[in-house]
Design goal:
mainly alpha, two-stranded antiparallel sheet, 2 strands
Length: 159
């Protein structure tokens, strides 16, 4: 039974269905420098039921630091979730590059605007795609270091 549930998760959480979620974040990302590093926090935030429940309340006036203080429970275990999702995040980035949906230049993700419709209409994870767009509202005007410091993320990559 455990193997069956793992197989279902593997089918549902694969590169082909998760890449559009990641790209939805980058579609409106206001962080320009080193924004590649932000990809490692997207899935850990979006696949947290508490985050999804709070997402409709996020507006352009929402500030990450204030939101964090009000909803500390949503961030519990974030470093562990980042480690859990690291490999799939890397595979999603590679898949997006292979499909020519993004280019990476000096740690900056650039969306290929001409090929955007190929992934934008994905039928999977619509709620998470909308939440990914909403994350941009909270980090508007912040740099990567400040975002990670606010979320108490001390490391992105540790083999």
């Amino acid at each position: 039974m455990k193997q069956a549930s793992n197989d279902i998760l593997l089918i549902k959480n694969n590169v082909f269905t998760l890449t559009p979620v990641l790209l939805s974040f980058y579609e409106g990302c206001s962080v320009k420098e080193d924004n590649l590093f932000l990809s490692f926090m997207i899935f850990p935030l979006l696949f947290n039921e508490k985050w999804i429940a709070q997402n409709p309340r996020i507006t352009i006036k929402s500030k990450l630091a204030v939101w964090k203080d009000l909803h500390k429970l949503n961030l519990e275990g974030l470093p562990g979730r980042m480690k859990y999702f690291r490999d799939i995040t890397i595979r999603c980035i590679q898949y997006a590059i292979d499909m020519k949906w993004i280019e990476i230049k000096e740690s900056k993700v650039c969306i290929n605007q001409q090929r955007m419709n190929e992934w934008k209409e994905s039928p999977f994870y619509q709620e998470q795609m909308e939440c990914a767009r909403n994350i941009n509202k909270m980090i508007h005007g912040m740099d990567v270091v400040t975002i990670f410091a606010t979320l108490d993320i001390k490391e992105v990559w540790k083999p």
